[in-house]
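Worked example 2:
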Amino acid sequence: MKWLALVLCLSILLFSCSVSTNPQRATFRQLQSGKLVEDTSYVYSLPYATGRTHRVIQGYYSRLTHKERAAIDFNMATGTKIYAARGGVVTRVKKDGTRGGLKSKYREDGNLIIINHDDGTRAGYWHLQYNGVLVNVGDTVQQGQHIGYSGNTGYTSMPHLHFLVWQRTADGRWQPIGTRFKTAQGDVYLKPFKRYRNPIIKP
Protein backbone atom coordinates (compact mmCIF):
# COMPACT_ATOMS: atom_id res chain seq x y z
CA MET A 1 0.00 0.00 0.00
CA LYS A 2 2.85 2.40 0.77
CA TRP A 3 4.38 1.96 -2.67
CA LEU A 4 1.00 2.62 -4.32
CA ALA A 5 0.75 5.91 -2.45
CA LEU A 6 4.27 6.80 -3.55
CA VAL A 7 3.45 6.04 -7.18
CA LEU A 8 0.38 8.28 -7.02
CA CYS A 9 2.33 11.11 -5.40
CA LEU A 10 5.05 10.88 -8.05
CA SER A 11 2.44 10.83 -10.79
CA ILE A 12 0.96 14.06 -9.47
CA LEU A 13 4.37 15.71 -9.36
CA LEU A 14 5.83 14.43 -12.61
CA PHE A 15 2.98 14.05 -15.05
CA SER A 16 0.68 16.98 -14.25
CA CYS A 17 1.71 20.18 -15.93
CA SER A 18 -1.01 22.50 -14.72
CA VAL A 19 -2.67 23.49 -11.49
CA SER A 20 -6.06 24.89 -10.61
CA THR A 21 -6.65 28.56 -11.30
CA ASN A 22 -9.49 28.61 -8.78
CA PRO A 23 -8.89 31.61 -6.47
CA GLN A 24 -9.69 29.41 -3.47
CA ARG A 25 -6.49 27.43 -4.11
CA ALA A 26 -4.28 30.29 -2.94
CA THR A 27 -6.46 30.81 0.12
CA PHE A 28 -6.11 27.16 1.15
CA ARG A 29 -2.36 27.24 0.66
CA GLN A 30 -2.23 30.13 3.15
CA LEU A 31 -4.51 28.31 5.59
CA GLN A 32 -2.42 25.15 5.36
CA SER A 33 0.81 27.03 5.96
CA GLY A 34 -0.56 29.09 8.84
CA LYS A 35 -0.06 32.40 7.01
CA LEU A 36 -3.83 32.83 7.19
CA VAL A 37 -5.59 31.87 10.42
CA GLU A 38 -9.30 31.39 11.03
CA ASP A 39 -11.02 29.91 14.07
CA THR A 40 -14.71 30.11 13.28
CA SER A 41 -15.39 27.12 11.03
CA TYR A 42 -16.57 23.74 12.28
CA VAL A 43 -13.73 21.35 13.13
CA TYR A 44 -14.28 17.85 11.73
CA SER A 45 -13.03 14.56 13.13
CA LEU A 46 -10.75 12.53 10.92
CA PRO A 47 -12.92 9.83 9.28
CA TYR A 48 -10.99 6.88 10.66
CA ALA A 49 -10.41 5.16 13.99
CA THR A 50 -8.96 6.78 17.10
CA GLY A 51 -5.21 6.35 17.25
CA ARG A 52 -4.91 5.43 13.56
CA THR A 53 -2.75 7.38 11.13
CA HIS A 54 -3.31 7.80 7.39
CA ARG A 55 -1.60 9.81 4.68
CA VAL A 56 -3.33 12.48 2.58
CA ILE A 57 -2.47 11.48 -0.98
CA GLN A 58 -4.41 14.26 -2.68
CA GLY A 59 -5.61 17.55 -1.23
CA TYR A 60 -7.62 20.63 -2.15
CA TYR A 61 -7.29 21.88 -5.75
CA SER A 62 -4.44 19.49 -6.50
CA ARG A 63 -2.85 18.75 -9.86
CA LEU A 64 -4.67 15.48 -10.47
CA THR A 65 -8.41 14.75 -10.14
CA HIS A 66 -9.04 17.50 -7.56
CA LYS A 67 -7.89 20.31 -9.85
CA GLU A 68 -11.19 22.17 -9.41
CA ARG A 69 -12.38 20.57 -6.19
CA ALA A 70 -11.91 21.13 -2.47
CA ALA A 71 -11.67 17.43 -1.61
CA ILE A 72 -9.28 15.13 0.26
CA ASP A 73 -8.11 11.59 -0.51
CA PHE A 74 -6.88 9.44 2.39
CA ASN A 75 -4.66 6.48 1.57
CA MET A 76 -6.18 3.38 3.17
CA ALA A 77 -6.53 -0.30 2.43
CA THR A 78 -9.81 -1.83 1.34
CA GLY A 79 -11.81 -2.81 4.40
CA THR A 80 -10.57 0.00 6.67
CA LYS A 81 -13.30 1.19 9.04
CA ILE A 82 -14.77 4.60 8.18
CA TYR A 83 -16.24 6.84 10.88
CA ALA A 84 -18.52 9.87 10.57
CA ALA A 85 -16.45 13.05 10.61
CA ARG A 86 -19.54 14.93 11.83
CA GLY A 87 -23.00 13.98 12.98
CA GLY A 88 -26.08 14.38 10.82
CA VAL A 89 -28.74 12.63 8.76
CA VAL A 90 -27.93 10.19 5.96
CA THR A 91 -29.46 11.41 2.68
CA ARG A 92 -27.89 9.10 0.11
CA VAL A 93 -26.09 5.75 0.02
CA LYS A 94 -24.81 3.35 -2.61
CA LYS A 95 -23.34 -0.01 -1.69
CA ASP A 96 -23.82 -2.37 -4.65
CA GLY A 97 -20.96 -1.16 -6.85
CA THR A 98 -18.34 -3.80 -7.63
CA ARG A 99 -16.12 -2.14 -10.24
CA GLY A 100 -13.39 0.47 -10.08
CA GLY A 101 -10.68 1.94 -12.32
CA LEU A 102 -9.45 5.00 -14.19
CA LYS A 103 -12.22 5.00 -16.77
CA SER A 104 -15.21 7.33 -16.72
CA LYS A 105 -17.58 4.36 -17.13
CA TYR A 106 -16.75 3.34 -13.54
CA ARG A 107 -17.94 6.61 -11.94
CA GLU A 108 -21.46 5.29 -11.38
CA ASP A 109 -20.06 2.23 -9.58
CA GLY A 110 -18.58 4.21 -6.70
CA ASN A 111 -20.14 3.25 -3.36
CA LEU A 112 -20.80 6.21 -1.12
CA ILE A 113 -22.47 7.82 1.88
CA ILE A 114 -23.72 11.42 2.03
CA ILE A 115 -24.62 12.98 5.38
CA ASN A 116 -26.42 16.31 5.87
CA HIS A 117 -25.37 18.43 8.86
CA ASP A 118 -27.50 20.72 10.99
CA ASP A 119 -25.97 23.90 9.51
CA GLY A 120 -27.01 22.95 5.96
CA THR A 121 -23.65 21.56 4.84
CA ARG A 122 -23.18 17.95 3.77
CA ALA A 123 -20.27 15.51 3.67
CA GLY A 124 -19.55 12.74 1.18
CA TYR A 125 -17.56 9.55 1.68
CA TRP A 126 -16.62 7.84 -1.63
CA HIS A 127 -15.12 4.63 -3.12
CA LEU A 128 -16.46 2.43 -0.31
CA GLN A 129 -16.21 -1.35 -0.37
CA TYR A 130 -18.91 -3.48 -2.01
CA ASN A 131 -21.62 -3.88 0.67
CA GLY A 132 -19.42 -1.72 2.87
CA VAL A 133 -22.13 0.77 3.88
CA LEU A 134 -23.52 0.31 7.40
CA VAL A 135 -26.17 3.07 7.41
CA ASN A 136 -29.40 3.73 5.56
CA VAL A 137 -31.07 6.84 4.16
CA GLY A 138 -32.86 8.62 7.00
CA ASP A 139 -30.54 7.36 9.75
CA THR A 140 -29.22 9.89 12.25
CA VAL A 141 -25.53 9.32 12.91
CA GLN A 142 -23.21 10.71 15.55
CA GLN A 143 -19.71 12.08 15.06
CA GLY A 144 -17.30 9.17 15.42
CA GLN A 145 -19.89 6.51 14.55
CA HIS A 146 -18.72 3.58 12.42
CA ILE A 147 -20.56 4.03 9.11
CA GLY A 148 -18.75 1.88 6.56
CA TYR A 149 -15.60 0.37 5.07
CA SER A 150 -13.19 1.89 2.57
CA GLY A 151 -12.76 0.34 -0.85
CA ASN A 152 -11.74 0.89 -4.45
CA THR A 153 -15.04 1.31 -6.33
CA GLY A 154 -15.87 3.95 -8.90
CA TYR A 155 -13.45 6.26 -10.70
CA THR A 156 -10.28 5.46 -8.79
CA SER A 157 -6.70 4.29 -9.31
CA MET A 158 -6.12 2.70 -5.91
CA PRO A 159 -7.93 1.95 -2.62
CA HIS A 160 -8.59 5.19 -0.73
CA LEU A 161 -11.28 7.30 0.90
CA HIS A 162 -12.43 10.39 -0.98
CA PHE A 163 -13.94 12.93 1.44
CA LEU A 164 -15.47 16.33 0.80
CA VAL A 165 -17.90 18.84 2.29
CA TRP A 166 -20.32 21.05 0.34
CA GLN A 167 -22.37 24.12 1.18
CA ARG A 168 -25.05 25.92 -0.82
CA THR A 169 -24.14 29.18 -2.51
CA ALA A 170 -26.45 32.19 -2.68
CA ASP A 171 -27.72 31.04 -6.08
CA GLY A 172 -28.54 27.55 -4.78
CA ARG A 173 -25.57 25.62 -6.18
CA TRP A 174 -23.63 23.08 -4.09
CA GLN A 175 -20.00 24.14 -3.74
CA PRO A 176 -17.18 22.07 -2.15
CA ILE A 177 -15.51 23.82 0.77
CA GLY A 178 -12.34 23.22 2.75
CA THR A 179 -12.55 22.15 6.39
CA ARG A 180 -10.38 21.97 9.49
CA PHE A 181 -9.81 18.64 11.22
CA LYS A 182 -8.96 17.62 14.78
CA THR A 183 -5.57 15.89 14.61
CA ALA A 184 -2.73 15.00 16.97
CA GLN A 185 -1.05 18.13 15.55
CA GLY A 186 -4.01 20.33 16.51
CA ASP A 187 -6.96 21.73 14.56
CA VAL A 188 -5.56 22.12 11.05
CA TYR A 189 -6.22 22.23 7.33
CA LEU A 190 -4.68 19.01 6.05
CA LYS A 191 -1.69 19.13 3.72
CA PRO A 192 -1.05 16.74 0.79
CA PHE A 193 1.43 13.90 1.40
CA LYS A 194 1.35 14.39 5.19
CA ARG A 195 0.28 11.73 7.67
CA TYR A 196 -2.28 12.58 10.36
CA ARG A 197 -3.18 10.67 13.52
CA ASN A 198 -6.73 10.73 14.84
CA PRO A 199 -6.69 11.66 18.55
CA ILE A 200 -10.48 11.77 18.90
CA ILE A 201 -12.14 9.48 21.44
CA LYS A 202 -15.27 8.12 19.83
CA PRO A 203 -18.48 8.87 21.78
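The domain at 2-197 is CATH 2.70.70.10 (Glucose Permease (Domain IIA)). The first helix runs from residue 2 to 15.
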